[in-house]
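Protocol step 4 of 5: obtain the predicted structure for the target chain.
Materials: sequence only (see below). No template structures provided, no constraints applied. The aim of this step is simply to have a reference model before the mutagenesis design in step 5. Sequence pasted as it appears in the construct record:
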Amino acid sequence: MAPLNDLPNEGGPATPARRRRRRGQSQRRRSRVRVAAPAAPVVDATVVDATPHPAGLVPLSEIAPAIAAISMSRRRFLGFGLAVLGGLGGAFGLSRLFPVFEEPESAVRPIVPAYDPARKAWTFVVDTTACIGCGLCVVACKEENNVPEEDLFARTWVERHAVTTGGARYVDSPEGGIAGFPPESTAPGAAGKTVAQAYFEPRLCMQCEESPCTSVCPVGATYRTEDGIILVDARRCIGCGFCVVACPYGARYLTPAGEHVPNDTPGVADKCTWCYHRISRGSQPACVEVCPVGARKFGDAADPASEIATLVRERNPQPLHPEYGTRPRVLYLGPSVQEA
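Step 4 output (structure tokens):
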């Protein structure tokens, strides 16, 4: 260990080198004091901002009272918004609960985008010489369209026309023909009579061009699509029954309450639509598709190459009861036309 007098001692004799070193240290201390920032003066917070502003701009302090005066509280804003939404919701709810207030433009439009209804001439042909009365068409219609099972409610049905040797005509349709027919006619007074001629006649909505049903509907629920199909808007129908009475072919009924109801809407008018939901997709009506003997034909008569156009052109089918003046678009072949 070195003696104490051998260690560096700043408090020793003031040699010239030590004096120069001390002068340098004091100069550095003085320079540090000179660069220290002076204390900031205290400014009164109430003094108006005198900072110059660009031309055309108003200081925020001047427009703040106006902003506060026209601002709306959050509660008032939410109340206003809820009131507006309530009004819109009420109008929408009214139109849903009472569709009669809706615009007629709510009519059903074709489903297929490429489908051009204006160029269609849908035509239905029934061949009564081919129909065997099996009733499969009635079954298919009820299944496809959720029609009630009772025979009083049908979009399509099959009749049996029996003509006796004496010229009397008896018509029966047990349960709408859904289960076929017994050997003898069930029409009142037909038992024991000798039948000279009999045939089956499928019936459905005639889709008349001069339709009474569309004329008598007081709320426009029965309407015609652009391609000529007559439909019923169940949301608008009030169940008055005017159209049921006006149809000369008996093709309409009022839906009863129950699980099996078209459109899940009881108490409104219903009828055959030619399975519009199918034909607008390019398919055939259910009754046409299921017929085992081709007694029902359907297609676009505007297409000269189609089967229906060829059938109309070559065999000249006729409407039932043209004297009604409704111009039906369902045409018949066979004894039905001769009878009418």
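Step 4 remarks: The two ends are 145 Å apart (CA to CA). The first helix runs from residue 16 to 34.
Proceed to step 5.
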